[in-house]
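Folds vary. Our protein:
___
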Amino acid sequence: MPTIKAVVDTSVMLSVAFPRGELARELRNMIADGVFTLVTSKEIMAELYRVIHYPRILKQFKPSKDDIDDFIGMVMEKALITRGSYSTKKIADDPSDDIFLACAIEAKADYIVSRDPHLRNLKHFHSIKIIDVKGFVERVRKG
């Protein structure tokens, strides 16, 4: 049973859905292999589903419907999905980022993996570390 729990923000999940770099590919494999517990919520999944279908995303990555369905299915199968019973109002500059904090608190996650400066500038939230993909992948590799 994986001991590390992590919430992964939407922009990172997009790079995992359509990996072009080694880190994104490795993170996708870690999720698929259950190396850590991916934590998400219905709100986060709704945002991911919406963003993955943006015309500019579809144009950039050219995924098939099956590619998208397979990725969403893998996430739904592997992730711990919180009930959404917690909310927070921490990020005044971008309140939409609060869903990641709320999910992490509810699941007692260890990490939030993000590129978003609103989240990253916090560095931590309660006892949850907020780090970039590289830092997270390196941490998971160490076990």
Q: What stands out?
A: Residues 38 and 79 are 5 Å apart (CA to CA). The first strand starts at residue 5 and ends at 8.
